[in-house]
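job 3f2a | input accepted
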Amino acid sequence: MAKSPGFWFFTGDWMKDPELRFCSLFARGLLVDLLCILFEANEQGYASNPDGTPRTNEQIADAVSGGSREEKLAALDELEQSGVLSRDSRGVLFSRRLARLAEVSKARSKSGAKRKQNESKPEANGEQTNKQNRGVSVSVSVSDSDSFLEEKNTTHTGGGSPASSGWAATEWESFVSAWNRTARAKPWTPLLAPDGWVDHAASPGWLAKAREAMARLPTCEFFRDPVAVTRFFGYVDRILAGEFDTAKQDGREQNHQRRRQPTGGNL
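job 3f2a | predicted structure (267 res):
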């Protein structure tokens, strides 16, 4: 599949991204040029060397036009700290959206190859015709913008009207950006949101509660190890209720405490 000559620039997403809005004008300008560079990269969306190692911030800054190196390095740091750009497990700086776009392109390529293969089979053609006659779309087109969530027009259960296209992906980007900067939160590195995200996010009031619980997570001394985001989904109400505020006692500590308890009887 030939590489696309460009990518869609969604002005609504650009204007509504809260983290990006708080970045300086210089950082936002640098980001536009950098996105073009990352889109043309061999590993689309990633600032990596040919061998997969991360390019240094100095290399990235020098590749962007305009401004001094110091200004561009400060802007890169600003974009990363705000969660607009991310680092993968290798330490490579990347754009989540462009990386998803590359994944979608690969998925489409595989899907197209399978479809051509199936169309060459008579039984497959019959199956396709039957499905179309029943009003079922055989191939599902995926938007290049934020397509990794198929439920991009999911109805909010409390509102009664469809949410804007791509709302679930936009909410996930904002949530996971904050999550990966939260103490006692186990970093979520996959590009895709976990199962159940759309259902949770569409529940009235859940996102507000989840953000409040996430803000309280660093004070939850009960958790000795970082909490996985999928487990956090089920802990939101309990965190807000204060169930995890105190440190967890292991079995030996609890038994020791029981032995020290007075048992009554004559003094």
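job 3f2a | Confidence is low (pLDDT under 50) at residues 124-163, 263-267.
job 3f2a | closed
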